[in-house]
Amino acid sequence: MKLLIVEDESKIGDYLRQGLTEAGFVVDLARNGLDGLHLATTGTYDLVILDIMLPDVDGWRILKSLRETGRNIPVLFLTARDSVEDRVKGLEFGADDYLVKPFAFAELLARVRTLLRRGSGPATETTLRIADLELDLLRRRASRGGHRIPLTTKEFALLELLIRHRGEVLPRSLIVSQVWDMNFDSDTNIIDVAIRRLRAKIDDKFTTKLIQTVRGMGYMLDEPD
């Protein structure tokens, strides 16, 4: 699942991104309100973690814009504003939860998972499928042909990225930025190794091969013609 964090405090933002990535999520981080507003209203996310006090555009306005445009993405406010009035205002504006800083990461992770299980209506995907391959996003499990496939956190994130973009050729630079949160180095073979290991788990034992290499461009997950 893909999350958006809108947080201007660098240490907190980096801490959240690392922790949630290690928990198996694909994470985007906006460090100011303007970028957060743009990503939240134009991107595709399963949940937004939103600070209130932000440069340029505050969290109230971002949440209001989301709800006014009919986007029912679950929103968790994570803020130092701890008054009852702020909590009530956040919920009345359409926030789904409200957590006060300082916070325990275990509690934040539990709240994120609860909101994702609750979902945002029929449009929320909890299972992704292609052919006989299935990803359970809530339990972070993969199976093919009814057989459970053990995946590492990174392998699951890579497979989720590929299946969400089925039929699209994903360049290595995009894959490494989304799954490993790093800039692409043309000298590294990290992606090729990860794809090879993923293929061994989800393709090698099956007649229909789903992971396709597009030479000079990248990788794609799709059913062959």
Shape: elongated
What is the fold-level CATH name, i.e. the topology of the largest domain?
A: Rossmann fold
Class computed from helices, strands and strand pairing: alpha/beta
The tally of helices reads 8
Number of domains: 2
Give me the count of strands.
11
Please describe what this structure looks like.
The chain is an alpha/beta fold and 225 residues long. It folds into two domains: 2-118, Rossmann fold (3-Layer(aba) Sandwich); 127-221, Winged helix-like DNA-binding domain superfamily/Winged helix DNA-binding domain (Arc Repressor Mutant, subunit A), CATH 1.10.10.10. It is built from eight helices and eleven strands. It has helices spanning 10-22, 33-42, 59-68, 84-93, 105-118, 153-164, 172-179, 190-202, and strands spanning 2-6, 26-30, 47-50, 75-79, 97-100, 127-130, 133-136, 141-144, 147-149, 211-214, 218-221. The strands form three sheets. It has a five-stranded parallel sheet with strand order 2-1-3-4-5, sandwiched between helices. The chain has a four-stranded antiparallel sheet with strand order 6-7-8-9, with helices on one face. A two-stranded antiparallel sheet has the order 10-11.
